[in-house]
Structure formats: C-alpha cells, structure tokens
Write a structure and sequence with these properties.
Largest sheet: none
CATH class: Mainly Alpha
Helix content: over 70%
Radius of gyration: 22 Å
Number of helices: 17
Strand content: under 5%
Length: 468
C-alpha cells in the first residue's frame, strides 16, 4: 500500500473516531448548559438542595470514575477494550438523559427530589461509561506527538460541533415549541416542552454518532494489565505522577471558567438581556470561534512550542472575556459581546485540544516513572476534573441565585440583586478562573517539548527491547 493511501486511510479512521464526540457532547452540552435552568425554573427545586446534591455526586464520581478507568484497562472483549464500553455507556447515558429532562411520572415533593438525585448521579455514571474509553483511545493510536495532536484536534472539532448544535439549536427550538412567555417582554422562554424535545433529540444523536464512531475504528491489540481494580493502584498513579495532579488543578480552573459562561448563559439572556432567543446568536459567534481555534495549534507549532501555544490560548481567552465585559457595560450590544466571545472561544478551543494532548503525554510520563501504562485510569481524571469544574460552577451559581432571591417565574422582572449576581458570574468570574489557570500552568507544569522527547525516546527503546 502506498504512503498516500495509508494517510487517507488513517484520516478516514480518525474522522470516524471523531464523529463519536458529537454524540457525547450533545448529551454533555445538554447537561452542563441547561440542566440548572431546568431544575430551578421548570421543576422549581430548592437551590439549597442542589447545593448539597452536586458535591455529594462528585464524591461518588471520585470513586466511580477511576474505578471505571481501571475496569476498562483490564477489558477482554473481542471488539477491544474500549469500543464495547463506548456502545454500552452511550446507550445508558441516552436513556438517563431523556429521563432526567422529562418528569414522566408527574412526581412532586420528596418523590421528585429523590428521582432527580438518582437521575443526576446516574447521568454522571453513564457518561463515565462512554467518555473514559472514548478519550482513552487517543494515546493507543500512536506514540507520535504530532499525530496525537491531529487526532485530538479532529475529536475536539466534532466535540465543539456537538456543543454548538445544542447551544445554537436550543434557543431556536425554544422559539418553535415553547408555550411560555416572559411576563415583561412577551418573548418565549425555556419551558418543560422545550427541554423534553431537546433532550430526546440529543439522546438520539448520542446513539447515532457513537455507533458510527465504534464502527469506523479498530483498536490496536494491547494485552490487558491483568490487575484487578484497587484503590491502591489509583493512589499509586496519582501519587507518583505529579504532573497529573498539576494538570488536574490548572485544567479544572480553566474548564470552570468556560462552564461558567455556558451554564449561566441561559440565565443571563433570560434575566439580564430579557430575550432568551438572542442566546442563539451569541453562541453562534462562539461556535465560529471554536472552529477557528482548531487552527491555532497547527499554525503556531510551526513557530513555537506547545507550551507557549497553550499560554497564548489561555491569554486569548482572557482577552475575549475582558472584551465581553466592556461590550456589555459600555456598548450594551449582544453583537459586540458575541464578537468578543468568538475571540475567547478561539483560545478555549485550542486550550481543550492542548489539554487532551497533555493528558496523553502524562500517560507516557506515568509509564516512564512507574513502569506501567494506566491510560484509562489517567484519562478518567479528565472526566472527573470536568465534573469538578462543573461542581465549582454550580456551587457558585446556586449560592448566588439563592442569596440574590432569584425567582424562575419572574424572568427579566427579577430583582436587581439577581441581575447583578448573574452578570458577575457571566462576565467577571470566567476571566479570573482562566487567569489562575494560566498562573498554575506556567509555574508548575514541567512536561515541555524537550522533556517529552526524552521520555518518548526512552519508551521507544524500551518497546524495542521488549519486542526483541
């Protein structure tokens, strides 16, 4: 087979793999961008209850996520150790997503609170079933850092597309199916029917795209480690892989900054702007920025290092957030805010790609230090840190809504304190969290390009000796 045909075959395989991220992020975007709004405005759940539920769910995730990672590492399916779990997890997550956004049994009072608590926890567990094996496949495709960047870029492209479909499509769908209006402006607002239809669409997309992804790729044969799950192994990986812990900190901070905007956006446009349909326009700018941001790494890598590229990405995101704040306070223009959001999303998209590559590097670093690979256990930390970032965002959100006397029935007629709290979360906190992330990365993360060349060369030599 010619070199050109091999490249085309690899590209087709990686595109097929990347498609799966659309489905995962349809569910992911629905959960992280709109669940808060659904729970507070449609189901009228107490903010105090939600403040308790979110941290408790994360405590369980701290046990469940690495446990699942270890199980995947020891998988012995004929299809491979990743693909079966992607199918199983996607099916379960689609069912839970639909149940979470639909009060099919007409529950109320304590029964509703118990139902939501279980569905909330089960969504996290089923998301883990699909997400960990999906992203764990990246380092198994190749040891080449450049090729990993390409794979991660393709997957992040489709991931951004999945979230873009949700964030742009939700306001459009709301205008078509909502039967509830803002009491002041008369504009359509998110209601039970909107969330029901949107969740069913996202659940169906998750099943479709994950199936296409699994059918498109073949896994490299890797012998299972043979080790049963143990917390000792998890603690060993975390204790001995110091760069994993540093990664967890700076990635959690930056992800929380991004989630702050995506999670508060529905409140901001409903309450502060007074027109939820304008969120679609705003998010459209962000989606364009997400696409453009995927070109940052391949362009900048021609001139500088991955480390400096990542620092540039975070700095660009911070600059965009500052522009959003000035646009809102000075110009009062959603279009101007959208343009600045586009700028920030260029940086954020590049940031997410780099984080995936860094995590693949951390797997190699762990093998270099400990003598064994822990791909899925390490990549389980990606899902866990995302959930921790979301937890940080929701704690701030629910506490602010409670203290500012937010009322989901009032929409734009909410008190001034609610307007101020939502504006602060939307326009100020994201840039602070991103700045802290940049500081931690710059001062603490040590896996630069030169260091990774040394580690890759050592592992390659080790593999040659093992193969005789």
């Amino acid at each position: 087979m010619s070199e050109e045909k091999k490249k085309k075959g690899s590209l087709f395989k990686y595109l097929g793999y990347g498609v799966g991220a659309i489905g995962l992020d349809l569910s992911y975007g629905m959960f992280y961008s709109f669940l808060n709004k659904y729970l507070t405005d449609v189901l009228k759940l107490s903010s105090r209850f939600l403040l308790i539920l979110t941290p408790l769910a994360r405590i369980w995730d701290g046990i469940n996520d690495p446990m699942m990672g270890s199980i995947v590492d020891n998988g012995k399916f004929k299809m491979g150790k990743y693909r079966p779990w992607i199918l199983i997890g996607s099916f379960c997550n689609a069912v839970i997503l639909a149940l979470l956004f639909n009060n099919l049994f007409g529950l109320s009072g304590p029964g509703l609170y118990v139902y939501i608590a279980f569905m909330y926890v089960f969504w996290g567990m089923t998301n883990t079933l699909a997400d960990i094996p999906y992203w764990s496949m990246v380092p198994s495709f190749t040891n080449d850092a450049g090729e990993r960047s390409i794979i991660a870029t393709i997957a992040r492209t489709f991931s951004g597309l999945g979230q873009g479909i949700v964030q742009i499509g939700a306001p459009i769908l709301m205008g078509l199916v909502s039967i509830t209006k803002d009491p002041v402006t008369g504009e359509a607002v998110y209601d039970a029917r909107t969330f029901m239809v949107l969740s069913l669409i996202c659940a169906g997309g998750l099943l479709l795209f994950s199936s296409v992804s699994v059918a498109s790729v073949r896994e490299k044969h890797r012998t299972p480690s043979g080790e049963k799950f143990s917390f000792k192994k998890i603690f060993t990986v975390a204790k001995n892989n110091d760069q994993l812990l540093i990664f967890m900190l700076f990635a959690m901070l930056s992800n929380a900054g991004f989630y702050m905007i995506s999670g508060v956006g529905a409140y901001y446009f409903d309450v502060v702007i007074g027109d939820s349909t304008k969120q679609g326009t705003f998010n459209m700018f962000g989606s364009v920025g997400s696409i453009l941001g995927l070109a940052v790494i391949p362009i900048m890598m021609k001139f500088t290092t991955r480390r400096r590229t990542y620092q540039f990405s975070l700095s660009l995101a911070i600059a965009g957030y500052i522009g959003m704040l000035l646009s809102a306070k000075v110009a009062g223009s959603v279009t101007a805010m959208g343009i600045c959001f586009l700028l920030s999303q260029i940086g954020t998209a590049s940031m997410f790609v780099s984080q995936t590559v860094f995590l693949a590097d951390i797997v190699d670093y762990g093998e270099y230090k400990m003598g064994f690979r822990a791909e899925s256990v390490t990549f389980s930390m990606k899902g866990f840190l995302q959930k921790m970032a979301y937890t940080l965002q929701t704690i701030i959100l629910y506490a602010s809504l409670s203290l500012s006397h937010y009322d989901g029935d009032l929409h734009s007629a909410n008190p001034a304190a609610a307007h101020s709290a939502i504006s602060l979360m939307m326009l100020v906190l994201p840039m602070i969290l991103m700045a802290l992330s940049l500081l931690v990365f710059t001062t603490k993360f040590k896996l630069n390009d030169e260091r990774m060349k040394e580690i890759t060369a050592s592992l390659t030599e080790k593999e040659k000796r093992a193969n005789g």
